[in-house]
Amino acid sequence: MTHLDSIANQTILVQTTYHPAPHLEIEMEIMERLLAQGNTVYWIICKSDFKNCFNNPEHKVMDCKVCFSRVNNGLNALKNGIENHKNLHVLQYNQFLKLDDFKKNNFKKEFSCSTVNDLKTIHYKSYDSGMATASSLVSFTRNHEPQVENHRDFIYRGLLTGAYLYETFQLILDKIKPDLVVLFNGRFIENRPLLRVCQERKVNYATHERGGKINNFLFRINSIPHSIETISNEMEHLWENAKNDRNQIGKLFYTNRIKRVEDAWYSFTKEQQEGRLPESFNANEDKKVITIFNSSLDEYEGLEGFGPFFYPNDNEGIKQICESLESYSNIKLYLRVHPNLKGLDNSQNKFLKEKISKFTSIEIIPAEDSVDTYALIHKSDIVIVFGSTVGAEAAFANKNVILLGRAAYENLNCVVIPKNHEELIQILTDDQYEFPTINPEGPLKYGYWNESFGIENKYYKPIHLGKGKYKGKQIKANFILRELRRFLEKRGNSKQ
């Protein structure tokens, strides 16, 4: 495992794509540390070159101006705050290839797709531009099956941006010849092309993201943040090299979750009423209680290697389970809808309402319901998950857990993974089935990893999850630009 602080005397290319805190500050932290270690850093900055990006999916002019202003102020803070700023060089995309020239000579506006699955199959040369565009579209709409016809402009801008960047990065790498490329996340329209170019040309790359704690950031060499294989190896490495307090730290992860502590990310359960169960629980005497905890499908759409093992997706899996358990009156089946789906009018929620709610074999607990997830776990005989953290939390509580989709804890011997639907139903309906004894070290290992992964910031100090100071100062966009954007947004809302 290569640590950031061991990289020295190399040529580094850093791409900036997502400016809200803490991500710009993480890039600044990475660059300052790399510069201090004798590296030469090239920072490539967007100046409205992305026609579609995660931070500005509608390509609003003022959002571009505010973004560039904040990044530029971050650059000035670096230049004024470090001695070796002469080794920091700023690049812009149009130095290598102008978008208008690329569009005129290389890119056709026409594309053929009627569904998001069609979109995923589109490639620009060897680059999976359709998958990156689909991933960004799903995140933008919070819908894993968005209506393509309603977003053709978004898709066009996404495919154009991805193809342009794919070609531009070839030229940049030819010119700079970096030893290492650093980029954010690797999932979206604006950074997936660089990831793919590095992979194709066998150039070392690193992705960055938030870390396991609010004051940590992730920095992974030759891996995306979501790689289960990388996470599994990292988990083992951290556990084996942990100090004597690793069990206590592992437990802390779960107790903080129960207490709704917001450290690494927002708590989805903080609005739930502690101890509250569904009213129907009073009628569950002598019944086997099975609770399904689904995932928010848009969260892993477009990520490599994610999703259910043998179902097309969570929704279809739940549907088949309901169909198979329809005649079992001795089983009480609940579906706890992921709180992150609260208030969304999307395909996943529509499917649950129109398809799943019609089964008499299941009771749906809506995303906005105040039923306590942890009380539900403790009162369930079997917990079914498709990959959410709830699976590890239930295993920590020594519950019988069935995992139906890829998860970071899948190899920790704390869950049962059926081979197919038929085996799943046999496990659920056979009262003689004995779940394997949970190895308590498994959930603790996962908890310790969550509490420990990442690198601690030296220069950035978070105030909360979306705000902080770099060397004691907040990095803000120009005040006039911020106020003008706020004025235009209010004016736009007032006209609606």
TrEMBL record:
Coiled coil regions in record: none
Source organism of the structure: Flavobacterium psychrotolerans
Gene Ontology terms: biological process: polysaccharide biosynthetic process; polysaccharide transport
Domain of life, per lineage: Bacteria
Signal peptide as annotated in the record: none
Protein name: Capsule biosynthesis protein
